[in-house]
Amino acid sequence: MFVGLQGSGKTTTCTKYAYYYKKKSWKPALVCADTFRAGAFDQLKQNATKASIPFYGSYTETDPALIAAAGVELFRKDGRDLIIVDTSGRHKQEAALFEEMRQVAEAVSPDLVIFVMDGSIGQAAFDQAKAFKESVEVGAVIVTKLDGHAKGGGALSAVSATRSPVIFIGTGEHMDQSESFETKRFVSRLLGRGDVSGLMDKIQDVIPEDKQPELLDSIQRGNVSMRVMRDVFESFLNMGPLSSVRAGPLRCRQQRGRLCKQRVACAASHAVAVASVRA
């Protein structure tokens, strides 16, 4: 069950979470128990359709606990092994919405309650996260909107207040712009050192598995043809902005530390070099 403040990106994060596990052969489903915000069900419906994930909600029922219970029961019968319940966004001063959240939790008995936090909220995160922890048993935290200037320092406050680990971070609006949280990579990016491991993960996501052995074999034999390089560059164009895995201007040895104008081509050559070393 996903809980969080209004405007924290909770509904989008629900779909990202489901899509992430769908790629790992899970069978996710989405339930919209947000009856407070106008258009919430439409947004979840649109996102779920785009990701080809089954969803449940209601335009007429106003009790979120009933909607959540009905959706969970439906998908359990359907054999779904990951059922995600999206709830209304709420603020710690809104006692009625917190009571509603407790009712939804009692209706579905979630295995895990995830607190979704806006990465730009800062130190105010502590009081908000503590209020949620006192109402439901928060077990994990997801930090969103880290694709901007926010560094996610409030995540430490949320972890302290809920005594729960950060499991994912959101790095953009698109479905695949979410990644599992790893401390070393997060701190490295925070300090401006970039994230080579994150870059390699992105490469593995965009280069098809059936082409990876061929690429590594070509690199090992020193036989990198124009066709192989073309495939690598095409894959990099589908990778998205490199700003999500680096913290400053991309620099290369050929430019002797100066800013490289051909960022994608430079990144591709660096990735081939790293892949060769790993092989």
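[next item in queue]
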Amino acid sequence: MTTTSVSTAATAGDDNDDSPINLLKDSQTLHSLQNPPPLLPNNNDDDFFSNPSDLTPQEIANHLFLNSEILAPMVRASTTPLRTLALSHGASLVYTEELVDRSITSPTERIINDELGTIDYRVPKHTYSAKVQRRLENDRDNPDAANGAVILRIDPTVERHKLIYQMGTGEPNLALDAALTVVKDVDGLDVNMGCPKKFSVSGGMGSALLGDMNRACDIIKTLRRNIGCNKPVSAKIRLLDEENPKPTVDFVRNLVKAGANAIAIHGRIRGDESHIMARWETLINVVKELKMYGDVSVPIIIN
């Protein structure tokens, strides 16, 4: 896994050697499980979270994201095995894969899996058609499928204070329903505003939100005002222009004004496929401009 799959966070106003600009200049250094990046200092999670009700969402976001090595969300990859493996190799924080809002709400059930010691969000078998039920029952590679599909599996021991739930959503009310379903089992809520895939964009999710600032901000506002706890709310976006940093800077500032506690920026624009090199120079200029504004005092995660 290269550094394009791992995010390194710092505040936009940080001028030390670990600033986003310095980190970006070294961002094409290849790392892997065999050649991991240097381990960062322990975050002292137990001490920090000793009185969690006394903490603000921004304080928690700063603790989770600043000076952290983060496993980025990857569809069909950021499941429990990869997340826990990354944590065992020194990752500070992990994201779930993007899960569409409706997939985690009813009829999905929250189940304590005593055998694995996990918390499972599972769609009961009886809610599927007879054809799908037969397929689940005959899945020899995954006998557990006979009990229904697992949408999200969380290891509360390994992932405690280290897990961000990422949702694909295009509507504030659906985002809130999904957030309220899982918020007690995760450490933060992230809205995917960067996925360029057809299934996401056609549903008004992912990078479709980059073209609708009002709706994007409304989702963040709705989550921040209504989740009923101090868990941080964040967003992951793409560059809005291949060269001009201003559209991305404006979008970030509006998300922060709406209540976002952290922003991750992927170094490609909407039309870029994964084989296209990230636009590092544009990303560097975005971070430089964000450093100029006092209203952006949240972690900016470089992806």
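[queue empty]
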